[in-house]
Amino acid sequence: MAKQSAEVGVEGLKKILISEERVVDEEVQAKVEKLITELHETKHLPPKDPDAQRLDHGFHFFKTKYLTHIQSISVNLQKASIPSKPLGRSQLQAGEAFVGRNIANMVPQFDQLRHTEIGAVIEYAVKSLQVDNILVMGHSRCGGIERLMSLPDCAQTYDFIDEWVKIGLPAKKKVLQEAGDLPSEQQLTLVEKESVRNSMANLLTYPFVRDAVVNGTMTLRGGYYDFVNGSFEQWKMCTH
Predict the structure, then answer these.
(1) Does some domain include residue 219?
(2) Any binding-site annotation on 238?
(3) Contact 196/224 with Cβ under 8 angstroms?
(4) What InterPro entries does the database record attribute to this sequence (predicted)?
(5) Residue 105 DSSP one-character state
(6) Which of 77 and 108 is assigned the larger pLDDT?
(7) Mean pLDDT across the chain, nearest whole number?
(8) Is residue 54 assigned to a domain?
(9) Partner residues linked to 237 by β-bridges
């Protein structure tokens, strides 16, 4: 089933690449397809490189110093009553990261007419700041993913939120195909993680991101904070 999901992801990306006005080199397209396939087939990547290890150590520091010892923080995080602060959880300092936040931490596909504010954040980070890494961070008890899972059977509708979280529909579809018999809470967790991988794949539809990744000057990373169980997972996409 993982292979089928990877094939779906590759085919979807092919359509986007073909629809672009500029021609994508066959070698570049082959590298991108390989990255997408590896991303869908990799469930968890233990941190090995220095940047991944730093993120892992940062979460471990937060967990041992705050999450484990301060009961109020632990309880509130598990109830999702405190918004996630990525810099604080990873121990990155001010100025070390350029942060963009939105509902469910999703990245839409490249589109110059829709979601331009997200495109502007990514473009500024890549072209102006020339960042080495882009990290998509998901977390447990995500209200945006919970909303995605409830669509379309919702009594209450939203003008903006519902359309936005539909960016994660490929993640939801994949999980329902592979784990449709699991309890809803477990499905929610799986979609929270798969949505991160979906956003990582969507980042490759941005020409300037794709060029940097294929050329080996940038790494795409995915992370997932589980504040209920006190764990942190990572994924990585790069050509070097």
Answers:
(1) yes
(2) no
(3) yes
(4) Carbonic_anhydrase, Carbonic_anhydrase_CS, Carbonic_anhydrase_sf
(5) G
(6) 108
(7) 81
(8) no
(9) 220
